[in-house]
Amino acid sequence: MNNQEYTIKTMSLDDLKLASNWAALEGWNPGKFDAECYFKADPNGFLMGYLGDEPIASISVVNYGNEFGFLGFYIVKPEYRGKGFGYKLWQAGMNYLSGINVGLDGVVAQQDNYKKSGFKLAYQNVRFEGSVVVPKAISDAVYNLSEVAFDKVAQFETAFFPVERHEFLRSWIEHPEHIALGYLIDGKLKGYAVARYCEKGVKVGPLFADNIEYAKALFDAVQARLREGDTIYLDVPAINEQALTLVDDYAMKPCFETARMYTGNIPELDVRRIFGITSFEIG
User: Closest Cα partner for 148 from 169, 163, 162, 177?
Assistant: First the structure.
């Protein structure tokens, strides 16, 4: 260990933006406005390790109402790896989430290490990459999500996330730089999608829909709002065969993979209707 004092502090929003920059350097391709939305989920759930006055390590440990937690942004600056700084930060983060079920999307190479820390594999998530093809027409059933009552969106999401996360959800779908669309039939929400610009290209996440037809309609409507040839990404649960059919239909190719893991019971989510997850960082 270095002779300088190592301390762990709760991040400010500016600190979280710095950690997002580190994630970009790792090739994780965060959204340009992810930090300000993530911070709404739990302002106390982001920790940074300092060596003296220098920030050198980060972790997110978002606590959703003391019912469920999600871990991400686990990064140590390259020149400080292998010295125990990351592990101390990990311990502090897990202590913050003590007593509740914790999920994460970890790089597959670290899966065995996460198992040693008590995490169990649920399934793989795969990031797919493709090029935007602007459709000639979009479905009349697709609306801007701003036209849908927030309570209706929040209720729809309960099938896809273990607990309520209203503060984050509102910031995610209402951010002025995000594209948020809903699929409605007879006034009933049957799916929704959010897209945001990232360091490279555009990520669609989440993409929740009752079936592949609605999911494709939403995906097409997102592409209609983008530039032809832009790079587009979708993070897909590998156990959802219909989601794999969707990315194949759009000629998208796998480019990154994570292991979705939990410390407790695997939540009973309707994975069949998850065509794209929201975030590798906070669930």
Answer: 169
